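Retry 2 of 3 after timeout on previous attempt. Resubmitting structure tokens to design endpoint.
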């Protein structure tokens, strides 16, 4: 990737290194003030053997964080001294994983003597998507392994309009995949098999108000599998049912806040059928769908770095004494001075 030839003193102000480590991915992103992504590297623990163990994931992050950082600097073609800001995922997420990323971020910021910014992971998904797809004030459908939320800007905050009441949609897909013998992560395999599906089998459609739930569908799908239901038909039906639920709550949130842009984020939105269903819904409402490139949809360091730059640009940074991790960091707790005047509340 091309590296802009700024004088050193400017470079120090303009480049941010972001560290992501909320769950099973550790990521390092290096981004400049224009959101030029100089490097965006990530490593995920092997989740094929079952649910993720927070301490094992944290050990994985601790082992990989420094090598990944060196590699990212090499990719970006910069030196440590060129970094002007360090950002990290402060929450929400798994305690041991968050603490590993935060410790690395504090050490780096202290040793370079640059400011530190703690970033909300969900807000980072939204901000990177907003920037790279050039949408202004979208409703975000954030569908990943651990998270399923519909978020929009309203009344000066990013608010969660709907979310899963039990497990994230990606975790549900991966659990289903593990039981029926698909490799991990199962999402892409499910998508492929679903294309061969012919029959729609009935699964419990579970929308409660603005929220969704997936564990009942998982139980039902596994039962049908045991009874000999064709796997391709099951994958197809799982997609159709779960994605219809996501589309329904997203559309309701868009209508409620009167927004005409829908932004996708999280690993599950790489699914082409989900994109198609959201696109159709958006078009029918005269709205537009925006999808960031794959590496910026999944958990990554570039989104943390970019959000750090925006926050720093608004005069926000995190003092060491305030840099403890926040496992239950809520999206609507984040101050958004950069949104003022840009989007209608
Ligand atoms: P978070 O901590 O934000 O919840 P995560 O690390 O659990 O994130 P991501 O990296 O955003 O999740 O995404 C991984 C999930 O996306 C996995 O559950 C995986 O099965 C799912 N996934 C990836 N590709 C597809 C696809 N094509 N269709 C459906 N699901 C997919
Ligand atoms: Fe995420």
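Retry 2 succeeded. Sequence:
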């Amino acid at each position: 990737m091309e590296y802009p030839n700024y004088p050193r003193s400017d470079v120090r102000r303009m480049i941010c290194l972001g560290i992501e480590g909320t769950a099973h991915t550790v990521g390092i992103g290096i981004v400049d003030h224009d959101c030029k992504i100089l490097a965006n590297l990530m490593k995920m623990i092997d989740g094929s053997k079952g649910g993720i163990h927070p301490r094992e994931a944290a050990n994985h992050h601790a082992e990989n964080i420094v090598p990944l950082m060196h590699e990212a600097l090499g990719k970006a073609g910069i030196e440590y001294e060129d970094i002007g800001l360090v950002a990290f995922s402060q929450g929400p997420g798994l305690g041991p994983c968050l603490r590993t990323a935060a410790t690395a971020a504090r050490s780096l910021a202290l040793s370079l003597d640059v400011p530190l910014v703690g970033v909300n992971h969900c807000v980072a998904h939204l901000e990177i998507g907003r920037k790279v797809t050039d949408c202004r004030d979208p409703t975000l459908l954030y569908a990943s392994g651990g998270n399923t939320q519909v978020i929009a800007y309203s009344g000066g905050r990013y608010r969660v309009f709907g979310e899963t009441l039990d497990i994230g949609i990606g975790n549900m897909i991966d659990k289903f995949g593990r039981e029926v013998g698909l490799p991990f992560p199962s999402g892409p395999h499910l998508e492929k098999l679903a294309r061969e599906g012919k029959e729609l089998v009935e699964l419990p459609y579970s929308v409660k108000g603005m929220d969704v739930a997936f564990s009942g569908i998982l139980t039902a799908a596994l039962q049908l599998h045991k009874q000999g239901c064709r796997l391709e038909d099951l994958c197809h039906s799982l997609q159709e049912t779960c994605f219809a639920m996501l589309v329904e709550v997203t559309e309701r949130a868009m209508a409620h806040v009167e927004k005409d842009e829908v932004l996708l984020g999280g690993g599950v939105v790489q699914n082409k059928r989900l994109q198609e269903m959201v696109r159709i819904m958006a078009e029918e409402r005269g709205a537009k769908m925006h999808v960031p490139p794959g590496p910026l949809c999944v958990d990554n360091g570039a989104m943390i770095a970019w959000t750090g730059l925006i926050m720093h640009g608004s005069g926000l940074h995190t003092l060491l004494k305030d840099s403890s991790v926040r496992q239950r960091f809520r999206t609507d707790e984040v101050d958004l001075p950069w949104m003022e005047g840009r989007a209608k509340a």
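Attempt log closed. The chain has two domains: 15-127+297-339, 136-293.
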